[in-house]
């Protein structure tokens, strides 16, 4: 018997490497609002959490300024950033193998759904995903936990049947709040030793390991 019936996937740093577009659009937003060039060391931390969280937490913007920066970011992202992504090795093959095994799958991302849908379709992920969930441009689903909960609702899945697959502590923390097990997949943007801080149920190196893990369950 399979332990899990449903697998939820993060997007940035899990299915795709997306940092070129994210970094350039963060720089654009800060420049447009009169802020200095951001510290390059801070930029990788912005892949995963919401934009508002990143602008306020990592760059010290007020709530009002973070909202403005988010709008500026999206202004540029819709033109250039959304196309600056590359699929992670083995991601598509994993989705295909899991689909053939009978898993039902969801995209559960903090990237606005309008952009996530474009990226998932471009790289062929959508063909294997039963639902695609991300925040609205209106601020709906503002946290990873809210995204995961909505994906579960759309799938009709209970927490003990689900496995979240992500690359950052935000994925693990969101999953824990929903009572869902999580794999920290070390293909993306996690900092060294991040798994020791967030305590995922599983840590796997790549999609080959993830596929083997789930097909053996």
The biggest beta sheet reads: 6 strands, parallel
Domain count: the total is 2
- Apparent shape: globular
CATH class of the largest domain: Alpha Beta
Alpha-carbon Rg, integer: 17 Å
Q: Would you report the number of β strands?
A: 8
Helix percentage range: 40-55%
Q: Which consecutive residue ranges, at least 5 long each, have pLDDT under 50?
A: none
The CATH superfamily of the largest domain is HAD superfamily/HAD-like
Number of helices: 9
Q: What would CATH call the architecture of the largest domain?
A: 3-Layer(aba) Sandwich
- Portion in strands: 5-15%
**Do you know the CATH topology of the largest domain?**
Rossmann fold
How many angstroms does the end-to-end distance come to? 7 Å
From N to C, what is the helix and strand string? EEHHHEHEHEHEHEHEH
Read across the widest sheet, the strand sequence of neighbours is 5-4-1-6-7-8
- Mean pLDDT across the residues is 95
Give the arrangement of secondary structure elements.
Elements: E1 6-9, E2 16-17, H1 19-32, H2 51-59, H3 63-77, E3 86-87, H4 91-101, E4 104-108, H5 113-122, E5 131-133, H6 144-155, E6 162-166, H7 169-177, E7 181-185, H8 194-198, E8 202-204, H9 207-216
Parallel strand pairs: 1-4, 1-6, 4-5, 6-7, 7-8
Antiparallel strand pairs: 2-3
Question: What is the structure about, briefly put?
Answer:
The protein is an alpha/beta fold. It has helices at 19-32, 51-59, 63-77, 91-101, 113-122, 144-155, 169-177, 194-198, 207-216; strands spanning 6-9, 16-17, 86-87, 104-108, 131-133, 162-166, 181-185, 202-204. It has 9 helices and 8 strands.
């Amino acid at each position: 018997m399979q332990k899990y019936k449903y697998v939820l996937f993060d997007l940035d740093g899990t299915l795709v490497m997306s940092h070129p577009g994210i970094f350039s659009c963060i720089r654009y937003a800060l420049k447009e609002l009169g802020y200095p060039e951001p510290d390059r060391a801070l930029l990788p931390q912005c892949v995963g959490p919401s934009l508002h969280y990143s602008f306020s937490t990592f760059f010290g913007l007020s709530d009002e300024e973070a909202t403005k920066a988010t709008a500026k970011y999206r202004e540029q992202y819709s033109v250039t950033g959304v196309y600056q992504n590359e699929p992670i090795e083995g991601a598509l093959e994993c989705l295909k193998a899991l689909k053939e095994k009978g898993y039902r799958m969801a995209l559960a991302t903090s990237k606005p759904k309008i952009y996530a849908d474009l990226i998932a379709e471009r790289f062929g992920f959508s063909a294997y995903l039963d639902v695609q969930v991300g925040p609205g441009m209106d601020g709906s689903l503002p946290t990873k936990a809210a995204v995961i909960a909505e994906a579960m609702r759309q799938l009709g899945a209970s927490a003990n049947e689900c496995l979240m697959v992500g690359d950052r502590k935000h994925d693990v923390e969101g999953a824990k709040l929903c009572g869902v097990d999580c794999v920290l997949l070390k293909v993306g943007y996690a900092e060294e030793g991040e798994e020791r801080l967030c305590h995922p149920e599983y840590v796997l190196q790549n999609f080959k390991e993830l596929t083997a893990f789930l097909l053996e369950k």
